[in-house]
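User: Sorry, what's this?
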Amino acid sequence: MSCKTLQMIGYKPRDYVKLSEYDVDERSNTLGSNVEPLTYQRYSSNFQDEHFQKNDELDLTRTKTELKVLGMTCAACSNAVEKALLGLNGVHFASVALLQNKAVVEYDSALVKVEHIVKAVEDAGFTAEALGREVSSSIFSVNGSTATDQFRITGLRCAACAASVEGLLGTLHGVSAASVGLPTGIGKVTYDPQLVDRVEIMNAIKGAGYEAEFIGRGRKNNVVLTIAGMASDEDGKAVQNLLCEMKGLKIFFLDPMREKAELTFDPELLNLRTIVDRIESFGRGRFKACLADAHDTYVSDGKVEAIILLRLLRLCLIMSVPVLFLGVICPRLARFHDFLSFRYGPFFVVDWFKWVLVTPVQFVVGKRFYLGAYRSLKNLSANMDVLVALGTTSAYVYSFFALIYAAITGLWLVTYFETSLMLFNFILFGKYLEVVAKGKTSEAIGKLLKLAPTSAILLSLNIDDNCLSEREIAAEFVEQGDILKVYPGSRVPADGLVIQGSSHIDESMITGEAVPVAKGVGDKVIGGTVNRNGVLHVKVSHVGSEAALAQIVRLVENAQMAKAPVQRIADFIASIFVPIIILLASVTWIFWYLAGKFGLYPLSWLPHGTNLFVFSLMFSISVMVIACPCALGLATPTAVMVATGVGAENGILIKGGDALERAKSIRSIVFDKTGTLTRGRPSIVSIHLFSDIKLTDFLELTASAELSSCWLFPFHSKDFYLVSSFSLHAIEYHDS
């Protein structure tokens, strides 16, 4: 079923339902008939939530409405619409989503009407239409608390984009801190829920012309699930009704089209594993629920962008082969001279054939650059799209008019269709490499996440602590207080305490120490470490964001998002780069044109069929197309991502670009223990032979000694910890 069909039957992009905390079974009496399936409505029940209180000083009669806004082409356009809306008396909040061509306005209906809002948008130079969705919203406050949410932001192309989103979020009333990582596309916002909520933050991001998706708060009672199997409207309604019936579920967003559900629940009444079990059992195998992985989402988004660019690049390459053959190779071969000069009536056939091949590329592939350039120029700014559009269009338009001129006068002029085509090839190839490189930089976090096991053995105990049953569950659904069974050779699923058994744990991934640590009853174990030789029963103490491995991953993510001081300089240069390049290109054209007019260079330099105008134009185009401001904005954050990622893989945690930049002044490093500098496992570096024994036999014994000291192995575990194979040539042999 298509998204359009779902919308026709009542599905909305995000469904927001708030359930009563004190008695979910009485929700029908509390909410009454207002609970309509899949209706965009913020429900505020009449109870006093222990986390929320009504703020009587705030206006509780504000109304939100959505507008369809046409004619916007860039972030500056959306900002102009926002400015016009916020200038109306009675409008408290306005955000414009550039890509969706929508605006969300929160206003006092007693002071301003929808007609006034529409007129304000039209006066700003755009077309507006009310979508007829008006939602009265209640405002709640949180007692002296702040929340930190993370959002996946798509559409960020350069440092200026990330900076604009950061600046926009920083201006929101109630937001105390905001940071946006350009390579990762993750925005981290700390705010006061009393003054601003998550929906308003997402609307603000969308108003800047980007897509925003909530990916987590770092709290175990606030999660985002992927629910596969909602293939019809009945499935979506069934899942929503099931969630409404769950006692302890406070708030949920349901997005059937994207198969996502965001849940906020009371951990004292409900846990994540229970929610997943009920969803999967309810669907009789039709539904499969799992935690949405923000890292996988980012990687998949990058792959989609890479696929799109690769398809466009292939189209360019396919068209380039015949065009280059006709425009570059044929003129250098005598046998093709008659073919190149062949005319059909007033038309030079070869040039028109090149025009037919280049035109689809110019307007199909170039569409993304033209749209970006139009949005930028309309608001008196410029970006890389402007440079590409100017360079390619100049070559294409001149060549086309050269064809018309030749058809009218019969005088042949040189065409430059291949110039436009090759520029698109170079730019798209660079963009493709950029997307692939950004994807590579995220692999470090993925490798850290893979240190955690994918499954765990959950034990059910009776009152005498005897095992009644055991079952395998996904490690992401392990809860605090669970009793887990850890086999030899497998990784510990979560942080906890040993309640039964004894073993040795390889903690080199955390401490760097090569020697396994003995563990017994009452000892702490860390999730992701390797159990060497004994069976352990572990009571889970920390899960999710509180686990040690999760904190390491979060530290690396925060480091990758932190901006280095030098990046501020790069961002400033990037902001003025394009106008300066356009100015230099114009000066270049004027210089070469005037120099030719005044005879400062011989006219023999001009190729056959060209004139001073075209000759100077080629130099101007060269200046524009070789300049790219994107590298300025991407170089520093990409370097930080690579450095922090590689460092984390080798046990070195770097707290951001600022630390890296200051590290250049370091002259000495003092380590507190030798274990910090080890590989995490012992290895033989030299041997001495004192007895009369064959060298090959002695080397075999030596290899066995090293291998045995590295691993006490039961081989049944799928999480088996691999060790490097013994290498004879790496040993320094001393014959004594």
